[in-house]
Amino acid sequence: MSHWKSLRKDTSIDLKLFDAYFEYLINPRNKKEVKIVRLSGPDACNVITITEDGRLLFVRQFRFGTNEYTLEVPGGLMEEGEDQLHSAKRELVEETGYTAPVWKYLSSVPSNPVYLDCYIHHWVAEGAGLTDATKMDDAEDLEIVLLKVEEIVPAMRSGLINHPHTISALMAYFLTDQNFRHFFQI
Q1: ∠ CA(119), CA(86), CA(143), 5° rounding?
Q2: Radius of gyration, CA atoms only, the chain
Q3: 48-52, 65-69, 100-104, 120-124, range with the lowest pLDDT
Q4: Among 3, 97, 111, 183, which residue carries the largest CB count within 10 Å?
Q5: Farthest-apart Cα atoms in the chain, separation
Q6: From residue 148, how far is each of 61, 111, 138, 151, 155 by CA, in Å?
Q7: pLDDT tens profile 98-129
Q8: Helix (H) or strand (E) holding 149
């Protein structure tokens, strides 16, 4: 399949977290010009956090897009010039007050390839404990929720855990470790 050729972009609009703009592309299949919306922004990191007692750490927070609270793993946008690991560690301590001695890179996926140009990078933090005070942003109000491993899949199946970045991170984590494949009957 051929790549879509970009003809031009309209001036972007600053939406605080993202820049939004229209882009005009040529569809290689039919050679017709199409107008698309693209959001451009920084990559993000999230963290599968395993506590010292083996539970997984989640945060419950209000999400403006759906006007609902979600149960998700901690994470957030990377700051300009920040590397992934530093971003993951910063987000974990800011949102939860937890730090961890062992960190492992897990995977990356597009945030939403339909209209976003950024990625979410999944990390695993092991042996985490509460060491600091939280430093939440003005638009955050988080509650920490600790779940046992065997509670995760039922929470996903019931819709309690439904944030796509969290599900992506959990699936990558569980499917890369032979010890957890039985939870998915694989």
Answers
A1: 80
A2: 19
A3: 65-69
A4: 111
A5: 58
A6: 19, 27, 30, 5, 11
A7: 999 999 999 999 999 999 999 999 999 999 99
A8: helix 149-158
For residue 29, give both structure tokens: 């299949």
Residues 128 and 98: beta-carbon distance below 8 Å: yes
Of 172, 168, 170, residue with least CA distance to 151: 170
Secondary structure element (H or E) that encloses residue 37, with its range: strand 33-40
- Exposed, middle or buried by CB within 10 Å (0-12, 13-18, 19+), for 48? buried
Distance CA 171, CA 174 (A): 5
Q: Which pLDDT tens digit goes with each residue over 159-181?
A: 999 999 999 999 999 888 766 65
**What tokens were used for 172?**
């990558």
Q: Which CATH architecture has domain 44-184?
A: Alpha-Beta Complex (3.90)
